[in-house]
Amino acid sequence: MDWTREALEARVFEILRDDLLSVDDSFSVDSDLVSAGLDSMAVTQLMLAIEESTGVWVDESLLTPENLASTRSLSACVFEQLRQG
Amino acid sequence: MTSRPSDRIPLTGADAMLRAFDREIRRHNSASHASQLVLRLGPGLDVEALRDTIARVARDTPIVRSSIRRPGLLGAPVYDLTRAAHNPMPPLRIHEGARPSDPKELPASFAAAMNEPFNGKRGELLRFDLVRYGDGSADLAVTWLHMLLDGTGSEKFVEALAEVGAGSRAAIGLEVGPETPETILSARDRGQKAREWQGFLQSFADRPPSSPAGPRRRVVQEVDYRLHAFGAGETAFVVEAAKAKAGFLTPVMYYMAAAVRAHHRMFERRGTIPQSYVVPLPVNIRPKGQEGAIFRTHVSMLWFQLMPDAVETFDTALEEIKRQRRQSIRNGLVDSGVHAIEFARFVPADLFAAMVRRTFQGELCSFFFAFTGDFLPAVQSFFGAEVRNGFHVPAVPPSPGSCAAMSIHQGRLNLTHVYQKGAVTEQEVERFGEDMRSELMQGREHGAGSA
């Protein structure tokens, strides 16, 4: 599948909201992920789910505070990795 | 006297596993599987208020002096609260000491406290040792039978003591965590997961690990430990390097790579490279909504097996740790570990310890390791005294005989190397500290730390 930035963001948001975090309706693509409960285990589960969807593994060293600030910023990081193949 | 179920708090699976480790230690000597938390305090400690608070907490939260026993042939061991009132209060023992010239040096009574047995059947689960110095400062060691509190729980307990002493919380109702993890799996599926986990560990046996202590030492051993304190600049470098190389939320892998490399160097100097290094990594499994649980231990284990050629450099070790962690989480081994550890509750402790030893041909693993992040970040003062530093001293059985525990207090990294005397020489202890510092600092120059 060729991913667009928007489709990837929607997929990452879906994984976080439905599978990994206990969040309410106020959770959005701009919500802070660490505050929402993203921890060391959940972030690896998230990367594994993204790998399953896209075939690309995002190394932990790329998961900076800036990239983990929100679904939007994280998706942009993953999208960049996808583009670089 | 027959106790009601509400008077009995079953041990968790992790508690029961630690109870087996306790038996393992008793098999070699007369000590217990004890853990310790140390606070280095400035002047002003209100000793009487601390003593009074310990007594109030022990009276209102009876698990801290309950008797640990197995109620029958079948069923999990329990904390029997009915015995608490008959059992002794946790002691606060006060020692007067001369401040050591080396600020990193710790009172000998603290290491001695790690080697003093606890009698769980008689409710001896917790004790406090306070060393007061002429300048008014003090060092406090809280030592406990490890199954009562895990590392996270011990910090929450000390924080709760400080809050009770300050009058901001009641002594009653300190949180006892859940007995078993929430699961929707059937007993059959839990058994299947436990077998998968056991099979995973069995796969390590083709290249069994060695520990610094060796598999079948018969000498009487005792624990000692050394603190290696890092300065603020050094810590800032290590923290940033850990984030950059291992990830913002997963820096633990960086610290683990350093510990593997430092142990590898110890074996290189001995000229006896093991077939593999097997290292367990505790994973906090407090469920959502029960993050505040203090008592009982709540951990699963991720296990790593690193071959010597994979640890030739720091970066190769880190990449291998990353790969194995990813693979284990992909295969659901944290969850499987929970179900496997549950079996420890229903198997006699001696038998469980023997089963673990048999898996690795006499060893439990190559070494213990822990990185617990920020140490008591919310506790700046303790009963009127400034908390100048603080760190953990984890338990370590005769195999593996060596443990590297790290945490950060107010921007300064502390490394505690806990070891069995007789398993690791004084020279090896010295070199281990140097090697850990070198690995964590990526070989860069550094200044002296402070304690």
Set down the secondary structure blueprint.
The complex is a heterodimer of chains A (85) and B (451).
Chain A: H1 5-20, H2 40-54, H3 71-84
Helix pairs in contact in A: 1-2, 1-3
Chain B: E1 8-10, H1 13-28, E2 34-41, H2 47-60, E3 67-69, E4 78-80, E5 92-97, H3 108-114, E6 126-133, E7 138-145, H4 151-166, H5 187-202, E8 223-229, H6 232-246, H7 252-270, E9 277-284, E10 299-306, H8 314-330, H9 333-342, H10 349-359, E11 368-374, E12 381-382, E13 385-393, E14 402-409, E15 412-420, H11 426-440
Parallel strand pairs in B: 5-6, 11-14
Antiparallel strand pairs in B: 1-4, 2-7, 2-13, 3-4, 6-7, 8-15, 9-10, 12-13, 14-15
In short:
With 85 residues, chain A is mostly helical.
Describe this structure in words.
- The complex is a heterodimer of chains A (85) and B (451).
- Chain A is mainly alpha-helical and 85 residues long.
- Chain A has helices at residues 5-20, 40-54, 71-84.
- Chain B is an alpha+beta fold and 451 residues long.
- In chain B, the strands form four sheets. Chain B has a six-stranded mixed sheet with strand order 5-6-7-2-13-12, with helices on both faces. Chain B has a four-stranded mixed sheet with strand order 8-15-14-11, sandwiched between helices. In chain B, strands 1-4-3 form a three-stranded antiparallel sheet, with no helix packed on it.
- In chain B, strand 3 (67-69) and strand 4 form a beta hairpin.
- In chain B, helix 1 (13-28) packs across helix 9.
- Classes of the chains: A mainly alpha (85), B alpha+beta (451).
- Chain A binds chain B through residues 22, 34, 37-41, 43-45, 47-48, 57, 59-65, 68, and chain B through 243-250, 252-253, 283, 288, 322, 325-326, 329-330, 334.
